[in-house]
Design a protein that fits this description.
Chain lengths: 112, 115
């Protein structure tokens, strides 16, 4: 099983749509979870951390299910500017050994 | 907003040549990283560096690779004898301490093309 596995894509949705991305991780010792966003040929940028209780940042909602080793990202009211690749990221240890393990990413295209 | 800067933005080299990629992490950060992304593939961890030594490295980071923090600001990745398969985007990242240690800020990347 891959360390971090994301839904295959791409997703192509109209503006205003709600879209959900799913991600599973294999290492039960994983401690921290994130969603990063990567625009074409650019660096990954932190979108949001994912907390056990679930968290929301504007139109974005992240959920974590430790028992199922599953993370999700929900984007409501999609904008054209949301078009990007969304990377699920898992960290097993912290501090000096903060090795981020990335999923392959899922590409979202929002059309007018 | 503080940023991680990388140079060069693009380097083209011949197979077998040595390449040095440079990074200036955020000034008060303590942890430094190199990641790479082959075109169309996922971002892969290479190495983490803390307190002037490597704290973890991946299986990709073999004897051809080395990192150095030669002074108080730069963090470099050296590839001794480049291979075609080293062609990729190389991202430097840094993070702070405490709860910020897991929050990495990435540089814009150095694209390496090996011919």
């Amino acid at each position: 099983r891959k360390e971090v596995e994301q839904d295959p894509g791409p997703f192509n949705v109209p503006e205003g749509a709600t879209v959900a991305f799913n991600c599973t991780y294999s290492n039960s010792a994983s401690q921290s979870f994130f969603w990063y966003r990567q625009d074409c040929r650019k660096e990954p940028k932190l979108l949001m951390s994912v907390y056990s209780s679930g968290n929301e940042d504007g139109r974005f909602t992240a959920q974590l299910n430790r028992a199922s080793q599953y993370i999700s990202l929900l984007i409501r009211d999609s904008k054209l500017s949301d078009s990007a690749t969304y990377l699920c990221v898992v960290v097993v240890a912290g501090g000096a050994n903060s090795k981020l393990t990335f999923g392959k990413g899922i590409t979202l295209s929002v059309r007018p | 907003e503080p940023e991680v800067t990388q140079t060069p933005s693009h380097q083209v080299t011949q197979m077998g040549q040595e390449v040095i990629l440079r990074c200036v992490p955020i000034s008060n950060h303590l942890y430094f990283y190199w990641y790479r992304q082959i075109l169309g593939q996922k971002v892969e961890f290479l190495v983490s560096f803390y307190n002037n030594e490597i704290s973890e490295k991946s299986e990709i980071f073999d004897d051809q690779f080395s990192v150095e923090r030669p002074d108080g600001s730069n963090f470099t990745l050296k590839i001794r004898s480049t291979k075609l398969e080293d062609s990729a985007m190389y991202f430097c990242a840094s993070s702070g301490s405490g709860s910020g240690a897991n929050v990495l800020t990435f540089g814009a990347g150095s694209r390496l093309t090996v011919l």
